[in-house]
Amino acid sequence: MKKLLHLLAGLLFAVLPSKAQNGYTVDPNSVINDPTALKSGEYLIYCEASGKTPGFLFYKNDDNDRPFRFNNGISITAGYVSNAYYVWTVAEVEENGKTLYTFTNKQDNSKYLLKDNMWNRNMAISADKEIAKLEAVPYTDEIGVKTIALKLPEQITPAEGEANADPYIFCNTAGDPNLSYWGSDNPKGAVHFTFYPVSETSSPAPRYPFLLSEAPKDGQFAEKTYWYFLKLNNKYATYKEGSTSIPLTSTNPVNYGSFWAFVENGDGTLTIYNAATGTSKFFAAAANPNTSGTSYPNLMEKATGVTTTWDYVPVSNSDTKFCLNLTGETNKYPNDYAGNGSIAFWNATGEGSMFIVEYVNLESTIAAIRTNQEAITGAVGTLASESYANFTAALDKGTMEGLVEALKIRDLTGTTVQFDPSKYYRLQNVKFGGIFGINPESMSLKKETAMDPSNANLLFKFEEGANGKVKIYHPNAKLYIGTAGSGESVPLKEESEASEYTKLDWGTGNFGFMDASNLDIVQFGKNGNIGLYRNSDGAGKGGDHAWYLIPAEEIDVNITAAGYATVNYPFAVQLPENSSLKAYTGEIQEGTDGKVLLLTEVPEGKIPAETPVVLEGAQGNYTLTIDSENTEPSIPSALAGTLLPKTIEEGTTVYGLGYVKDVIGFYKMNDTNRTIGANKAYLPSSPVLQGVRGVTFSFGDNSGETTGIEDVTSNLAKEEYYDLQGRRVMNPTEGIYVTKSGKKVLFTK
Q1: How many of the other CB atoms lie within 10 Å of CB of 210?
Q2: In what order do the strands lie in the sheet with 282-286?
Q3: What is the mean pLDDT of residues 32-53?
Q4: Among 135, 239, 387, 556, which has the minimal tally of Cβ within 10 Å of its Cβ?
């Protein structure tokens, strides 16, 4: 998540440690995240690691034990840095047919990243340690973001433990991360690096902590327009259509009104644009605004009595913070007035009047927004198919105008997937990705990590009540979600004890579920389970209290090489058209030489709810359609079915689908494995099966007679038997054989 925020929010934004006449220019758009593009030169190096605050790599000259760290001690939003401790000289080295890299600090070229055998320690400076020649390894995370990991290309022997085959650069110390080595078979947990080329300059530090855009021309933004997220008192300022003020939020909504640009006028004042309103409107205010919290700047057209320019007011001892004063007015500063949620005016500078900016990398922002939407396509509250197509077409333009168009479709004009209580749903946590499942032993909610399309235990249904309240039903367990105390797991209960939850709509497909005690269903951290927690902590869009509701309109089933499977669902399903898949119910009959299970095909491939069936088809994965409108009763059958896993008591005989010596059938369960999986069919014991070890299949033909494989349990008939290769067998053992008359028979012990 921190990586995603980095992409959406640009690069941060802290006070430069020192001012210097000589500095370094950097283009925030020039990003190297592919090893093939990394060449010798000077760079700022952005570092990200799981559980650590991201930042730029620097040499800390007063700590030889932990000298190589990263933090937010510089900002590149103005395209300029002055602190050479953050600048690194990267040199390519060819060795053993590989391109390797060395890293030397610009401020002190005697300091370099070291080859170290102290894994999971610190890359401490020592005279006996040589410069590290590191291999650059490409890494792409789960949302498609590309970065570079670094590792030593050869084995090293750590001070403790086994030789380390893949010594990647990791980091220690969450509060003040420093580099170290750790062995890993992949770069996922390593530090992930992004490189920004710099050029040394003798020009003084710029006046502004942002890049100035060229003035618009002919109603269009100039090619050199630099976009920023704008924060006031550490809250994001975002234009909203129809609002009389500019809202402020503690988290970045990244919507159509999030993007701001600055143009310097000939008189030294600033004109500020928002991408959502184009070049015809400006960040402006009516003349002589009051400072009592009831006058608001907004995006306005030029008009009499409207001031559209601002005086830039620097903040002492800060290279990143600034204030704005309405041109022509005295002490009229935009302010987070009393934390009222919108920009108003105040008569003094101070924290509440201080702005900072975060640079918007257009390419990365478009990629992240596209990936986020792809991940939740089809969820309730997200874009329906036609609007989603328009959304992606707008993003494909690769421009700020296209990005704003896409976000307006997403946030304003697009048609969204509607909630339908007649459907089944899978629920996934917005922040951590955990999925609603159940623990059949404790009968409580359980976090699943994989969105398995074949797992019916992931499906839930909502029963609507009054005032937006719902009961949440689990069809496999035939139970409802109950409630418990804060911090406890969520139990499953009978309907009489079901809890009513208020369904909270937080926008963009984010939903919460709050019980009568104001406890929300949450996921307790990335590796935590699902439970209940008070609504006030972490509730809202994007948090661990928020869930995606993904309509479950299909369920998958796999047919193995044996050609058969069994299923039993709590809902009706439709077999796919134009496929080899067929479904059968079963009836025990007396065959010529033993017991057979007469299989009768389910008409039109429509399997009613709780109808256990045998599936026959070519090997492969099949997608069945869930038919929530099919209320037909189950079809009578000799087969029984499970919804949850079922353990068979000792002494009870049942037959499960098996593949024994190349023969498929229902075979007596052994004494060691007595559990039948969820949503399976099996053959229960009955008097007619007394003494039978296995029952194989026979298919009803058009004459009503049975053909196929029969079970031979005693008294071999006076017949000639042949194996499946056509060779005569004088003393048949277990297996399938063909008689002289062409009948297939199964011999069992």
Answers
A1: 25
A2: 298-300, 282-286, 306-307
A3: 94
A4: 556
> Residues 649-668: pLDDT tens digits?
887 888 888 776 666 777 78
Whether the bond between 13 and the residue before it is cis, its omega within 30 degrees of 0, is yes
Q: State whether residue 220 is helix, strand or coil.
A: strand
Question: Residues 348-405: pLDDT tens digits?
Answer: 999 999 999 999 999 989 998 998 899 889 999 999 999 999 999 999 999 999 999 9
Side-chain-facing half-sphere of 578: CA atoms under 13 Å: 0
Triad 582, 583, 584: Cα angle to 5°: 125
Task: Please calculate the CA angle 271-275-278 and round it to the nearest 5 degrees.
Answer: 75
Residue 42, Cα to own-chain centre: how many angstroms?
35
Cα–Cα distance for residue pair 429/525, rounded to 1 Å: 10
Closest CA to 531 of 481, 495, 463, 493: 481
Beta-sheet strands, E only, within 465-553: 469-474, 479-481, 492-493, 501-507, 510-514, 519-523, 530-534, 547-551
Question: How far apart (Å, rounded) are the C-alpha atoms in residues 211 and 227?
Answer: 9
Beta strands in 233-321 (DSSP E): 235-237, 248-249, 260-264, 270-274, 282-286, 298-300, 306-307, 310-314
Residue corresponding to tokens 């006030």:
536
Under the banding of pLDDT at 50, 70 and 90, the label for residue 16 is very low
pTM of the model: 0.71
C-alpha 312/C-alpha 299 separation (Å) is: 18
Q: Quickly tell me which residue has 């941060």 as its tokens.
A: 12
CA–CA dist 553, 624 (Å, integer): 9
| Cα–Cα separations (whole angstroms), residue 509 to 369, 373, 382, 384, 432 | 14, 10, 5, 12, 15
Token pair recorded at residue 34:
């592919």
Position 694 scores a pLDDT of 52
DSSP per residue over 196-207, as a string? EEEEEE-SPPPS
Mean pLDDT of the chain: 86
